[in-house]
Amino acid sequence: MQVDWELSKQFISDSQGIRVACFLPPSNPDVDSYRVVTGNQGGGLCEFGVPSGSLKPIDFQHNHAVTALLSSSSNGDKNPGFYVSGCKDNLVRIFDSSTHDLMATLKGHEKPVTSMAFVSAGGSTTCNCDYLVTGSWDGTAKVWDVHRRALLATLPGHENSTCVTGLVPTNDQPTTTIKIATGSAGLAQNNQIQGHTVRIWTVDIQTG
Hints:
- This protein has no helices and 17 strands.
- It is mainly beta.
- The termini are far apart.
């Protein structure tokens, strides 16, 4: 079945190419339904109100291209307070979703951050965004405790760039483990990409 889509609105901010985007709750629900934050090739961030079309450049400037953005809203958090950026400078940064102030910087990757996802433990009564998993060109995925700003585990051995996602817990029973899926981009051999692999991980959030 063919579906025809009609463009309802487009926003223009500057001459830098947009690499990534995420959504946030509206600052003023009487005016907008949500906000879209974009990260660009030059390391800048912009906020757009939807549907008003309001544009707000964000003061913080990354050292390199913004390569990943993730909002706590994307994981069903009822009271989201932050969003996370991944950058080509190898760093992960946490921002306040209301003020856009930098709250923390997570250091650990040795190459650009390529992907991010939140993951929750089964039966968890805490925020669904307690744990963040990030993938990188360095061939690893890393698991972070967002609120303690602590690195919990490093998942090594990926072939080239790594993409990540958190898996939904299989039951509602309390557990100390989280499940993660990672994918690798593979390596070029004889003009063909080989070794691209999907892996399933179980990580103990207490011991790493």
